[in-house]
Amino acid sequence: MIDEPASRPFSADAYVAFYENLTPETLQDLAKVAHEDIRFKDPFNDVIGIKSYRIVLADMFRATPDISFEVLHRAYDQDVCFLRWNCQATVKVLGKSPWKVQGMSELRFASDGRVIAHLDYWDASSQFYNRLPVVGWLIRLIRRRVAAH
């Protein structure tokens, strides 16, 4: 893990700690680490504003009450922090085995040190849609046909 330079006016530590300890109850503390104009984007959502972001996170807990995040690595470049992480949850439509996602996040910081952009990058096709009964079969079929040509 690369340590954050002490001269930076921002800190990813608080945001990472927030995510690694995220629960429905801690959502009220989101404004401590996220700017009111935050943009959050992942394969399912693209929202601006802390209220919209809080709704996304609350919906996530309704769909996956046992979801958890673990940040494995951090890298910094100017006012950007890149995170590599794992996520795990139980998703009813995916069956009883845990749903595991590996992904990357790009964090950008406002002048006050809070996160103003959180952009997630992970392969929703292979890590989610592929596991859906009908959709997964169709995706695997298309991949086989494309790979054969």
Question: Would you summarize the structure shown here?
Answer:
The chain has 5 helices and 6 strands.
Low-confidence segments, ≥5 residues, pLDDT <50?
Answer: none
**General shape:** globular
Radius of gyration: 17 Å
Strand content: 25-35%
Order of helices and strands: HHEEHEEEEHH
Topology record:
Blueprint: H1 13-20, H2 30-33, E1 34-41, E2 46-48, H3 50-63, E3 68-77, E4 80-89, E5 99-109, E6 115-121, H4 124-127, H5 133-147
What does this structure look like?
Strands 2-1-6-5-4-3 form a six-stranded mixed β-sheet. It starts with 12 loop residues before the first helix and ends with a helix. The longest helix has 15 residues, at 133-147. The protein is globular. 30% of the residues lie in helices and 33% in strands. With 149 residues, it is α+β, with helices and mostly antiparallel strands. The protein has five helices and six strands.
Give structural attributes.
149 residues; alpha+beta; six-stranded mixed beta sheet; 6 strands; globular
